[in-house]
Write a structure and sequence with these properties.
homodimer, about 25% helix, 8-stranded parallel β-sheet
């Protein structure tokens, strides 16, 4: 079934397909509930208060964010009824400098705040927030990004104890799930790292009521006995990467960029008016190109510039002037490029959702 | 000489180094003047009225933009004195639909507008603007993006004539200059395509007073006898790509992202709080990584996520908590990610420039 977009849409336009979004939210909530895991979706994917509300309504226990600024933007509507969210985890090794202590303190007046930490030095800077925030120790499970090795988790927790900070547990991001066929191994690595960290922390006298993991590719391969909580983000909207990883079908892609065929200079290619400034430039080596056209699954986006996507085409395909739907490779960076999302149902515009936490990078 | 950033800067922060910007503007203006070429900088790089003013003051004859929205944003201050710009070329195969004719007509009341075209169908849609805009035919010189083959330029021009539109000439983008060692060949291709198109157009009765080309990597290899005008953009600010192409030195990079070392989880790497949502995700295969650290030229950014840059390091390097300057791979996408640029001179904040045309994608 082709994606139905509102007629006469100026392009490029970033569109959320409302029913698909709701279906994605419901499915992940059901999965988490059946696995006995708390669901704390990562809101960096969508940055929208309206989607936070829907995630909580579907059963999420709180949200994850990447920055204090995202926490601020997504709780700003708190005076409203109902509040969008009252429990936020900044899933990042926060380095509290340049006003961050004051901003975190203000947040704790309104919502429960947990933050990540992966160094004693980082923890010490959070000391002014003793009694007001919870800490989760970040461990690495194979991505080789932030996070200490599980055996080093106690050193971070002990620094927290010295600073008077409450250690609630441990978290990891199995982001090495972002390769074809890697999800099961990443989930196994995640389980092993969380178990090892929990054991090391217990030996040092720290309980770990929270053991948090999850990424969209690996979520359904999680080991529920090793985790208490899942933090997937992308699942709400999905993208071309998830389709090419086999995690989602085109019918699960709930965010597309409407684009016009503006040039057809030769038989072998056409050019869309959606480039890296609306799709994002993410292009891992294992992807087939710079995004996909759900209604033209054979087509490949072989070149991307700021305002041009070149679609290689030698068969039937869209014609000059046609408007097509493009699934970005990475929905999190695509959302961050626009001030609002156009919410569409059955080919009609329902409403517009501000990207409240857009560019909230600090 | 290390880059001097204001003390206590919340990170990540996107910073323009004022003296370097001015030096870059002056150098390209001087080059163009000596080559006898008009300089029409591409403003999609910086999207700032303040930089447009400086480019014009340095001798530019007008600006290039990629979208009608950029033209609107950058001329919006026209009532001001002096006007920021009065001659704008939308260097794109404009497909005039969904309100675009009205928007272009309003622009022509205030500034001279030229637009690109590479199809008869695209030209026909511009007919309501006959007598108000100038057309430049886009030809491809090897990038294989938009633009017809030079021999097909007359067909586009004839469509323009039928629609009563003024054809001012021809343009091309030698973007295949974006590979190490490719600039000279791209400039030669550009010259050949512009000459061939001009000859074909002349045979069909069309003069080409404007023959426009240029990209930052190829600009200084341009063939002045084949061109009348250069449209480089990146040169104003430069980026890691230009350094790795050998087009700029680190000392010419006038935009950096200030980032804090937030994690040092192992001896082989450190993590910065600048990711793809502030640096952009551009990562051509020929680059060494996801950007560079001008003050640590041996360092490589081997991994990039939305809020993490992983810097591989086995020698001396920045420490946990240090603030470092990062040169993004592609400055045009980095600028588009933030609402304002912090202008710094000699380690002090001078002012803030709004990214006026941010997300002006249509």
């Amino acid at each position: 079934v082709p994606i139905r977009l509102p007629a006469g849409l100026p392009t490029p336009a970033t569109v959320v397909l409302a029913e698909r979004l709701q279906r994605n939210l419901t499915a992940m909530s059901r999965f988490a509930a059946e696995a006995g895991l708390a669901l704390r979706p990562h809101a960096k994917t969508h940055k929208c208060v309206e989607i936070v509300r829907r995630q909580l309504a579907a059963g999420a226990t709180g949200i994850s964010v990447a920055t204090v600024g995202e926490a601020e933007a997504l709780t700003a509507a708190l005076e409203s009824d109902p509040p969008p969210v009252d429990d936020v985890f900044v899933a990042y090794p926060v380095w509290a400098d340049h006003g961050l202590i004051g901003r975190l303190a203000r947040l704790t007046e309104r919502v429960r705040i947990s933050v990540g930490a992966d160094s004693a030095a980082g923890v010490e800077r959070l000391a002014p927030l003793a009694g007001r925030i919870r800490l989760l120790v970040e461990v690495d499970c194979g991505l080789r990004r932030s996070g200490v090795a599980p055996a080093q988790a106690p050193a971070v927790a002990q620094a927290a104890e010295r600073a008077g900070l409450d250690v609630a547990g441990v978290f990891t991001f199995p982001g090495h799930s972002y390769r074809p066929g890697a999800a099961e191994q990443a989930a196994a690595d995640e389980a092993r790292a969380l178990r090892a960290a929990a054991e090391a922390l217990l030996s040092a006298g720290f309980e770990t009521p929270v053991r948090s993991g999850g990424s969209t590719p690996s979520a359904r391969s999680s080991h529920p006995d090793a985790l208490t909580e899942l933090r997937p983000g992308v699942y709400a909207l999905n993208d071309a990467q998830q389709v090419e990883l086999g995690v989602a079908r085109f019918a699960d892609v709930a965010l597309v960029v409407a684009a016009t065929v503006v040039s057809r200079p030769a038989d072998d290619r056409l050019v869309l008016d959606a480039g890296s400034k609306v799709l994002g430039a993410d292009r891992p080596a294992w992807t087939s190109g710079y995004g996909r056209l759900p209604d033209w699954p054979e087509a490949r986006i072989t070149g991307l510039w700021e305002h041009h996507a070149v679609v290689a085409s030698d068969g039937p395909g869209p014609e000059l002037g046609d408007v097509v739907a493009v699934a970005p490779n990475h929905v999190c960076t695509a959302v961050n490029l626009v001030p609002e999302l156009l919410v569409v149902s059955d080919g009609e515009e329902l409403e517009r959702w501000p990207v409240a936490a857009r560019a909230a990078n600090r």
